[in-house]
Amino acid sequence: MFVNKAPIKSYLSVGKSQLQSLIDGLHKLGYQTIGPRIVDGAIVYGELNAISDLPVGYVDWQDGGKYRLEPSDEAGHFDYVVGPDSLKKFLFPARETLLQSIRVDGTWNMATPDPAPHPLAVFGVRSCDLHALAIQDKVFLGGPYVDPGYQSRRNALFVVAVNCRRAAATCFCHSMKTGPAVEGGFDLALTELADRFVVQVGSTRGAEVMTNIEWTACTLQDIDDARSISKTLRDQMRTRAHNAETQRESELPRERHLDTTDIHDLLLDNLEHPRWSQVANRCLACANCTIVCPTCFCSSVSEVSDLSGDNVRRERAWDSCFTAEHSYMNTGTVRKTTASRYRQWLTHKLATWTDQFGTSGCVGCGRCITWCPVGIDLTEEVAAIRGDES
Ligand code: SF4
Ligand code: SF4
Fold first, then answer.
1. Rounded (10°) CA dihedral 256, 227, 37, 320
2. b/e map of 233-264 (b: 16 or more CB within 10 Å)?
3. Which of 157, 221, 222, 171 minimizes the C-alpha distance to 192?
4. What percent of the chain has pLDDT over 90?
5. If you compute the radius of gyration of the chain from its CA atoms, what whole number of angstroms results?
6. Could you check whether the bond before residue 180 is cis, i.e. omega within 30 degrees of 0?
7. Can you give the pLDDT at residue 356?
8. Is 322 close to ligand 1, i.e. is its CB under 6 Å away?
9. Contact assessment for residue 210 and residue 222, using Cβ atoms and an 8 Å cutoff
10. Which atom of ligand 1 lies closest to the CA of 282?
11. I need a labelling partner for 81 at 20 to 30 A (CA). Which of 99, 144, 221, 238 fits?
């Protein structure tokens, strides 16, 4: 067996076929491996047992309300960008039992579910999603009340990140300073070169996993080549997003950019701006944007009983500030209009989230733009409120 100890923060050169050894090595350590898969024409996370499970040779095209996958001769293993899934669904499941109550002979027995989750290794996590993970960590672990389910799943998570080589037109991580280069928060980070991967080791667990994989130390040139991929992409994103002329002449979708200058005060000083009603005329209040958002964390809790009434589960399920019920209090629904719900979402995401958690609630992944059925685009909404809509 190949045994080679890699120090943390080292860069390793790994043949492409060794990706299978990495998957197998994680299995040997007891991890279930998850990665990008093509399901119903979109890239989502699913079971990953072989390299052939990956969407090798595919790219995605995204715009407001649009998503399309296409084969490409130039595409490598991870040249799609982000699909509707993120790490959120693994750490904060869409539906979760918090308490199970069973009545036996008139006595209620209550139990919380086993907090020990299966160790999970997720492949293909992008920089924006690592930032989203850090945000959700603050939400679920940062305050005085730690969420035990999230905490145990988080401790069992192994992250194999990937540096993006291309961006969708909906991506604006360069504006939010959340990408495209992966900078931390991973166990291993891959950058795909023409003939191999450069693997950056980010943790002791990552180093342990690499012990049984064939690798050689990267040369300075290898490291430079890997870094220049993210740098070139970031420069391209900035240039394209600021070059309105190119966008007008191009048939490609408009590249996004979000001007975050004084955005907190801009939004809170414009709570009565007419744009809220204008966007509400298009918004279906369907909640897609909040469901696909990797940082949104609203939930509701309900008691679910079987027909006998002897088995009752307390369930937590994802909710959304776009539903009327979410703002229901004893005197009725507080946010009665779609305009007030859209305003709540955007002002929380980009302004009051900072007051609450010390960071923006948006990482610029663009999912809410792509998966909005009517193509509502928060970058356009902020620009309109700022008064620089073209
Ligand atoms: S902004 Fe779009 S995705 Fe969000 S609730 Fe409105 S219609 Fe649905
Ligand atoms: S608000 Fe939209 S762009 Fe920002 S993190 Fe959520 S889904 Fe991504």
1. -40
2. bbeebeebbeeeeebeeeeebbbbbbebeebb
3. 222
4. 88
5. 22
6. yes
7. 95
8. yes
9. no
10. 7
11. 221
Q: What's the confidence (pLDDT) of residue 275?
A: 98
Task: Report how far residue 160's alpha carbon sits from residue 285's, in angstroms, rounded to the nearest whole number.
Answer: 35
Residue range 324-350: mean pLDDT, rounded: 95
Q: What's the predicted TM-score (pTM) here?
A: 0.94
Q: How confident is the model at residue 116, as a pLDDT?
A: 76
| 192 C-alpha to ligand 1 centroid (Å) | 35
Instruction: Tell me the per-residue pLDDT of 60-79, one tens digit each, with 9 for 90 and over.
Output: 999 999 999 999 999 999 99
Q: How far apart are CA 181 and CA 127, in angstroms?
A: 6
Please state at what angle helix 275-282 crosses helix 378-386, rounded to 10 degrees: 160
Output the CA 276–ligand 1 centroid distance in Å.
13
Average pLDDT over residues 236-241: 83
- Mutation choice for ligand 2 from 293, 344, 376, CB with most ligand atoms inside 8 A: 293
Q: Which amino acid is at 116?
A: A
Look up residue 1 and give its two tokens. 């067996």
* pLDDT score at 289: 98
Identify the residue whose tokens are 């299966």: 118
